[in-house]
Amino acid sequence: MTFPKNFLWGGATAANQCEGAYDVDGRGLARTDITTAGSLNQRRQVTYEFPDGTTGKGDKVPKNAHGAVLPGEYYPNQVGIDFYHHYQEDIKLFAEMGFKTFRMSISWSRLFPNGDEEKPNQAGLDFYRRVFEELRKYQIEPLVTIWHFDTPLYLEEHYDGWNNRKVIDFFVKFATTVFKEYKGLVKYWLTFNEINNTIQFLDMFGDSATEKDYQDAYQQLHYQFVASARAVKIGHEIDPENQIGCMICGIANYPLTSDPKDIMLNRHVWEKNIFYCGDVQCKGEYPTFAKRLWDEHDLALDITQVDLADLKAGTVDLYTFSYYMSNVVSTHNDPDAEKVSGNFVMGLKNPYLKYSEWQWADDPLGLQYYLEVVNDRYHLPLMVVENGLGAIDKVEADGKIHDPYRIDYFRGHIAAMGAAIDNGVDLIGYTPWGCIDLVSAGTGQMSKRYGMIYVDLDDEGHGTMKRSKKDSFDWYQKVIASNGTDL
Ligand code: P53
Fold it and tell me: Which residues form a coiled coil (predicted)?
């Protein structure tokens, strides 16, 4: 098992889940700032305040709602782990682990508080410059996601968010600003985090999605594809050194049985959930099966000739993805079949796999499978930019966190990456998710921890924010020092 010499070992975070400081130095509200903590269902029931002072709940931003920060509610993303004020200390710990790269995102509303301003907020620009310079001090290569779920709330409320073609221009302006501002400091960029979630999650919650949901989701996605492609083209013009990637939520799907109907369903699930977005972003055009997907829901999409030319001109340099788990699909509606009940995934239970406390399947071979599939399909350098085990960690009597379960999870997945590399896969980097504990995207919990670094903070926001090393910290340090040979 040989990892390439300059393999980019590191870790991954996102602004909305770790920065906090949501109202500091001119930052505007992002849609992620107004989601409360709790289980997925509770979390989707966001509370909004309307201009007449009344409040309402919903899982989408209702028209005319004001970003509400209501007394008595706790909004974990507003606090994050206060990376905004701890970044020096945190980066020092990443350097101690031996990170070659660090994945982070830029908060759109820190640079453009409403999203439609002419000029960016200087204090926001200065913050990221300080962070990038700090990383450079330790020769850590930044890997920067431009959009990680946190569209400025103002754009959601006043422009209807990604349903509106105008938002493409606001995003392109934001992207152009960061490419220009951080030229020479940042070389690796990702345009949209887990872009495929928009359609992938539609039917992962049972059959609650309406035809309008499908229409909206495919339309939003088209605007994001165009926004991404235009950003890629501009990013290359500003600095030909830039390496810009797509980012796909990579769930490996399997058929439950050998019934050809299950095999076909599985193929179609891969097409819809995984290849639809990857093909557009890597090949610059919609795949043949797009028509089937659109026809299934009678969609009428606003796609212009100029858009199609933009997609062609803005293909990505890298294919990156997150990988946490695999999933099982079937046409056999056996009422007795055991379902996976965890947040986000509504598939069937795989009897060959272990499941996490949140019911995510631990499946290293699924990662190797995924890597080999996308390597053959796109012939682009690959990066696994998220991977990890969300688990409850306990501070033991000796004051430390012993997390052998997390080490086991990483060991299996790193070995799987090594096996894929041995089979010729062009994998260039690995940034496990939440290398430092942070707020969960799916549940808003701090207690769903991924980190090698522990943060003393609970689900209600109590704690000292003190950072400490878990056992996985020393283990990962050794893995990096041995370039993946000492697992
Ligand atoms: P949390 C679902 C399935 C796979 C990846 O997720 C997902 C999600 C959304 O929850 O999202 C990515 O925090 C995402 C991160 C997120 C991470 O996975 O729900 O890019 O922002 O934190 C882990 O456990």
Answer: none
Distance 442 CA to ligand 1 centre (A): 6
* DSSP one-letter code for 34: G
Q: Identify the three-state secondary structure at position 220.
A: helix
Cβ-based neighbours of 296, under 8 Å, separated by 6 or more: none
Residue 358 Cα: closest atom of ligand 1: 24
Active site residue 460: no
Domain 8-481 falls in which CATH fold? TIM Barrel (3.20.20)
Q: Write the pLDDT tens digit of every residue in 118-164.
A: 999 999 999 999 999 999 999 999 999 999 999 999 999 899 999 99
Domain boundaries, the chain: 8-481
| pLDDT of 44 higher than 70 | no
Q: How far is CA 273 from the centre of its chain?
A: 15
Give the C-alpha separation, 401 to 404, whole Å.
10
Are the C-beta atoms of residues 345 and 206 closer than 8 Å to each other? no
Ligand 1 close to Cβ of residue 390 (< 6 A): yes
pTM over 0.90: yes
DSSP string, 246-295: EEEE--EEEESSS-HHHHHHHHHHIIIIIIHHHHHHHHSS--TTHHHHHH
- Measured CA to CA, the distance from residue 100 to residue 300 in angstroms comes to 45
Work out the pLDDT band at 391, boundaries 50, 70, 90: very high
Distance CA 20, CA 23 (A): 9
Q: What is the pLDDT of residues 248-306, one digit of tens each?
A: 999 999 999 999 999 999 999 999 999 999 999 999 999 999 999 999 999 999 999 99
Q: 133, exposed or middle or buried, with CB in 10 Å at 0-12, 13-18, 19+?
A: exposed
The residue type found at 396 is: E
Active-site entry in 134, 157, 181, 194? 194
Cα(414) to centroid(ligand 1), Å: 19
Q: ipTM, 2 decimals? A: 0.97
* Ligand 1 neighbour 188 (Cβ under 6 A): no
Q: How remote is the C-alpha of 13 from its chain's centroid? A: 9
- Evaluated on CA atoms 65, 71, 77, 83, the torsion sign reads positive
When mean pLDDT is compared across 26-40, 118-132, 397-411, the lowest value belongs to: 26-40
- Our answer to whether residue 386 is catalytic in this structure is yes
pLDDT at 79: 96
How many beta carbons lie within 10 A of that of residue 396, not counting itself? 9
State whether the beta carbon of 344 lies less than 6 angstroms from ligand 1. Answer: yes
Contact 249 CB / ligand 1 (< 6 Å): yes
Any alpha helices (H) in 322-457, and if so which ranges?
364-378, 404-422
- Integer CA distances (angstroms), 306 to 18, 167, 230, in order: 38, 16, 11
In which band, very low, low, confident or very high, does the pLDDT at 115 lie, cut at 50, 70 and 90? very high
Six-digit token string for 332: 């056999």
